[in-house]
Design goal:
Blueprint lengths: L1 H22 L4 H25 L5 H25 L6
């Protein structure tokens, strides 16, 4: 079960970072978006892993934390894709 949840979380992270290049202008805005998502995701995951105790392995909680943080960005990118939005 842990492998499935972790795989889903990492697929979300991968899709978001791949799609950001399509919908964000090259340069500073794109770098800030990538760095912010990764930093907040890691912080959320590490804090979750510290609080989880023995419920799940730390690497699973960190990966899930990354996925959870990327879900709002995933929703925005999917809406942009369906709306055929350009770069912003």
């Amino acid at each position: 079960m842990f492998a499935a949840v972790t795989t889903l979380a990492l697929l979300i992270v991968g899709y978001v970072h791949t799609s950001l290049s399509r919908f964000t202008e090259p340069g500073r805005k794109r770098v800030i978006a990538h760095v912010t998502l990764i930093a907040v995701g890691l912080m959320f995951g590490v804090i979750g892993a510290m609080l989880a105790g023995q419920v799940a392995p730390p690497w699973v909680v960190i990966a899930c934390g990354m996925g959870i943080v990327h879900i709002p960005a995933l929703c925005v990118l999917i809406l942009k894709r369906f709306g055929r939005s350009g770069q912003s």
